[in-house]
Amino acid sequence: MSPQATTMQPHTDAVPEEQVMAGFPPAPEMRVGPTNWFKLPWLRWSLIHRSLSVPTVDVWRGNAEPSALPSGAALYGATMVSGPEGTKVGLDQALAQLEIDAFMVLHRGKVVFERYLHGMAPHLRHGSASISKSYLGIVTGMLAGEGKLDLTATAETYVPEMRGSAMGSATLQQLLDMRAGIVRPGLDDRPSALGAQDGGVFEVLGLLPRRPESPGDFYDFVLRKPAAGRHGERLYYDNGQPEALAWVLRRVTGRSIAELMSTYLFQPMSTERDGFYSVDKTGAEFSSGGLSLTLRDLARFGETIRGNGFFNGRQIIPEAVLADIRAGGDKALFAESRFAAAYPGGSYRNYFYLSHDHLQGISAQGRYGQRLYVSPAADVVIAHFGAAPGQSPHPFEVPYARLHREIAELLMG
Amino acid sequence: MSPQATTMQPHTDAVPEEQVMAGFPPAPEMRVGPTNWFKLPWLRWSLIHRSLSVPTVDVWRGNAEPSALPSGAALYGATMVSGPEGTKVGLDQALAQLEIDAFMVLHRGKVVFERYLHGMAPHLRHGSASISKSYLGIVTGMLAGEGKLDLTATAETYVPEMRGSAMGSATLQQLLDMRAGIVRPGLDDRPSALGAQDGGVFEVLGLLPRRPESPGDFYDFVLRKPAAGRHGERLYYDNGQPEALAWVLRRVTGRSIAELMSTYLFQPMSTERDGFYSVDKTGAEFSSGGLSLTLRDLARFGETIRGNGFFNGRQIIPEAVLADIRAGGDKALFAESRFAAAYPGGSYRNYFYLSHDHLQGISAQGRYGQRLYVSPAADVVIAHFGAAPGQSPHPFEVPYARLHREIAELLMG
């Protein structure tokens, strides 16, 4: 880290973030719990220290030495980029305005910029939110490549309990592309501080108080999704679809999602630290949003994607898995979705966002400012974690995507 | 591992342990929760996978390569030792009869025996129960050696909130030696499956259902301990005393117990994996019993003690800290305690048990069969984890101690 990082202005809130969970014991109003974790400043602490709030399962990195992430010629904190309003500011200032906790840029495999802010540090594991889905998408592709899954088969072929449920008759590929015909139960029916969007998963984890009608675990969560329309007709982003897919993966392999991630990605990549998932009472991972990991380990995943699956001296992800993603999804459906603003002309495939522009952007995205952006054309990987509260569509979605493009273009030269 | 391990008879219960938390989802009666985790076969799974039941905080190992634990000439599974009844059986048979999950013997720094049973594995982190106290005792000694703590000062000197509470007027050394004048609240007043002994800590963690009068966190747990008698007069083993000491350590250093363990022990020892602690709602560690770690990392701690604090190429624990422990505690008080049966002529000091025999045994002990035994005279370290349900005094206390002595004498030759 360069000295600039320490001279940045701290984020200011009515409640100083340094006081959150500080002291032994912390002041009652400074503790993180079900009534405040989704608001600043408590949100940051909650995302950076998720294991202290909920049960978790580790994603073992193995015993090998961490793979190398060499340093290269640097970007600077003063490099001019677009801030959230579109006006040009220094990169460090943009990160502060965009509620970023950690930010890393690699060019041609070398780290050219790395910042940790707001109590985040290289060894801490930040919640990645829906970037978890992209990890799941890759491992699903790898299992299909091994012949263990047929992506054209329906979910109920593998999990008979799903027969008669909204997603049981969807194919695995439809679940990968958010094209099963379902609606979110509870959407707009609960005036919670989170706006109820995806409240179900947080109730399963105990992060929000449970109601009598709350699902008891992620299996129950999947089975309760109401059907709406026909499969394939819409891009309807929802946690239910990856959770249904996770159930299929567990059933077919006899292994937990954490074990699969360890075997297929974390061990081969020789990550710096273990990752971990939030889990429900049955031990099932919050596969659509519960993976926590270090920034550098997220960057390693990006480097593996940039290298067509080759990283750490070996082919980790088969090229075909990434070729399928890069070919993209249905552009017409994407254009109708709320994601088109940040990715005009883009598409969605296997839980990745494709830019289909001259930068060939491949992106994994999670709520609160979690992003992985890979530009094979510019040889650039950008990874960041944030703590921007609020719902999708979030006002930072367009600014994040613009910042990624600007940095990639700058480095492509 | 030698082939013997796989040919051993599995532990038999009415409910097969392989079915605990097996399947996606697991059968309701096979799930681990507040009503069954303390009974076999659920106890084993609960001890081996504690992070899936409660919030936790990691003890970071750092980024260095794991320190070496070389292999040496082997003990054998057929080596004759005393089983629980005192009759001679093969070592592997003894381990099965003594509900052992993992067992390791080092002689002159080399691993001469290593077994993983009942679903335990080298990379899994088993609950160490009260061995956690011994880690706390060592770090307390290290902080005192740096002049950050005065062990002759009272707890309330450092934590003013403890003024007027039963342990506030006890010295840190009295807390280290279990000699504060307190009684266990709730002992025998609750007919729980755990016999209520130390029920308070499990209620704090949510491992047992909370009652209206349950302490809310570990600070509250400490403050509620009722006084009984005068400090120094008895050896009264209780979780309150190390929990009070942990509060002092946090307040004085401004750091969590997990951070202290990482800085003072796990990073210098270059453990194979991170450890982790169960935590309460305030993020406070269950310092008296909540540390989970791998068997090999427990063995590394033992090797460090055997080497007078020197391990991994450096002096990790100052010699004076270990000399103080080896000198022992009050033998007369120990003789009156329930521990004298396993350690006749022994004593207790800084959360370690001293044998004061020709083997110079130093032992850390935890419920359910967790043990670290170090014999500097025999150059032997024995580490094991178990899942023997029940209360102290446990019928296996004497057999475990006897087994340690027999192995040490065998290797001393």
From TrEMBL, chains A, B:
Which Pfam family, an example, fits this chain?
A: Beta-lactamase
Q: What is this protein called?
A: Beta-lactamase-related domain-containing protein
Organism of provenance: Cupriavidus agavae
Q: Which InterPro entries match?
A: Beta-lactam-related (IPR001466), Beta-lactam/transpept-like (IPR012338), Diverse_Enzym_Activities (IPR050789)
Which stretches make up the Beta-lactamase-related domain?
102-384
Q: Which domain of life is it from?
A: Bacteria
Q: Which residues form a coiled coil?
A: none
